[in-house]
Write a structure and sequence with these properties.
Bound molecules: pyridoxal-5'-phosphate
CATH topology of the largest domain: Aspartate Aminotransferase, domain 2
Radius of gyration: 21 Å
Mean pLDDT: 94
Helix content: 25-40%
Number of domains: 2
Oligomer: single chain
CATH superfamily of the largest domain: Type I PLP-dependent aspartate aminotransferase-like (Major domain)
CATH class of the largest domain: Alpha Beta
Number of helices: 10
Strand content: 5-15%
Largest sheet: 7 strands, mixed
Number of strands: 13
Strand order of the largest sheet: 1-9-8-5-4-2-3
């Protein structure tokens, strides 16, 4: 093994932190000196700036991305007088939290297969899954690539469904000139450390263009309270704290530069990796912010082993689609129900991608993969 590359991780948070250490420490010191640690000035500023960034009218900071999804659902369901047995349509090919949030609010996840191009909900298959009980659709902009929002919004309008965007992996992604999270009724974001905009702990965010939704969300994450010690509804304690907000303000400032770097890394992979693999496509009018760069190949597990031997990390997002997860066994789905999601789960492999990935590191990764493909394509 080549010593100089003895370990290339999926993401190098330390490299990013080293670059931003001074401004982050200065911002944290400001919070320490302010004496205000929850619901203060930094959080308020972050709510304004992230909403602006996403091109949404309102933003609400919450404790994590999963809570963001839960509140979005609670509101959507309440607003539509949802009771037990309400159904929410979503993709089986996503991080567990998307389906988990649906179950957590007492609704039933209904999965619809994905299309091979976007890895997101196939709009052609949504209508057959709609019943009288369907109240909302959660689209997931997986890996940083937008779902087919135009078609999905049309279906939602026709059937009076709310659309919640799980944009946890896709902050900044544009779709026909709009940013994801501002297209549906509610946008949900995660600022988990490894996300494209990451805190140094847990944090999440909700965006909306609807004033009443915004007001309800602000109360919900703060014990259903608008005015201290006056509670108009049962809420939760799920706030984004001042230290995380301060860190995120620094990182937000660099977000466009970092997203640009990700796109450059992706471009180099696409231009140089063997054409024997399936690489991510970017259709016209679309964009990809590459939270993950994923390739598809039959000998995925063999390649992953070879990469590991050569000091390169790789990962599978996600090996088991949600309908085959043990936690969702009660929904009675079977293997074969969503063949496209299942097939892709067996072939997908994510490669290291992060703003500070060096040319040398990337050359090494590409050469290991292309050598493998020469004898295994
Ligand atoms: C990360 C992620 C979440 C959950 O966010 P947390 O902040 O970890 O709770 C939900 N959905 C998707 C698609 C994600 O990638």
């Amino acid at each position: 093994m080549d010593k100089e590359h003895d370990s290339i991780p999926m993401v190098d948070l330390q490299a990013e932190l080293n670059l931003l250490r001074t401004p982050i420490l200065e911002m944290i010191t400001e919070v320490l000196d302010s004496g205000s640690y929850i619901m203060g000035e930094k959080g308020e500023k972050l709510e304004k700036l992230v909403a602006q960034y996403v091109n949404a009218s309102y933003g609400v900071g919450v404790a994590n991305g999963t809570d963001a999804l839960q509140y979005a659902l609670q509101l959507s369901l309440r607003a539509l007088n949802i009771g037990d047995g309400d159904e929410v349509i979503t993709t089986p090919f996503t991080f567990f939290a998307t389906g988990e949030a649906i179950a957590q609010v007492g609704a039933k996840p209904v999965f619809v297969d994905i299309d091979e191009e976007t890895y997101n909900l196939d709009p052609n298959k949504i209508e057959e899954a709609i019943t009288e009980k369907t109240k909302a659709i959660i689209v997931v902009h997986l890996y940083g690539k937008a779902a087919r929002m135009e078609e999905i919004m049309d279906i939602a309008k026709l059937n009076n469904l709310r659309v919640i965007e799980d944009a946890c992996q896709a902050i900044g992604t544009e779709y026909n000139g709009e940013r994801v999270g501002s297209i549906g009724d509610i946008g949900c974001f995660s600022f988990f450390p490894s996300k494209n905009l990451g805190a140094l702990g847990d944090a999440g965010f909700i965006t909306t263009n609807q004033k009443d939704t915004y007001q309800k969300l602000s109360m919900l994450r703060n014990h259903g309270s608008e005015e201290k010690y006056h509670h108009s509804s049962i809420g939760m304690n799920s706030r984004l704290d001042e230290i995380q907000a301060a860190i995120l303000l620094v990182k937000l400032y660099y977000l466009d530069i970092f997203l640009h770097k990700r796109k450059e890394v992706a471009k180099k992979y696409t231009e140089n990796l063997s054409d024997l693999l399936k690489k991510p496509s970017i259709p016209a009018g679309r964009e990809h912010t590459f939270h993950q760069y994923c390739i598809e190949l039959d000998k995925r597990d063999d390649l992953s082993e070879v990469l590991k031997k050569n000091g390169v990390a790789s990962a599978i997002y996600y090996p088991v689609p949600l309908h085959l997860q043990k936690a969702f066994a009660y929904l009675n789905y079977r293997k074969g129900d969503f063949p496209i999601a299942e097939n892709i789960a067996g072939k997908i492999l994510a490669l290291p991608i992060f703003p500070m990935l060096s040319y040398q590191q990337q050359d090494h990764i590409i050469s290991v993969i292309n050598t493998f493909m020469l004898s295994n394509g």
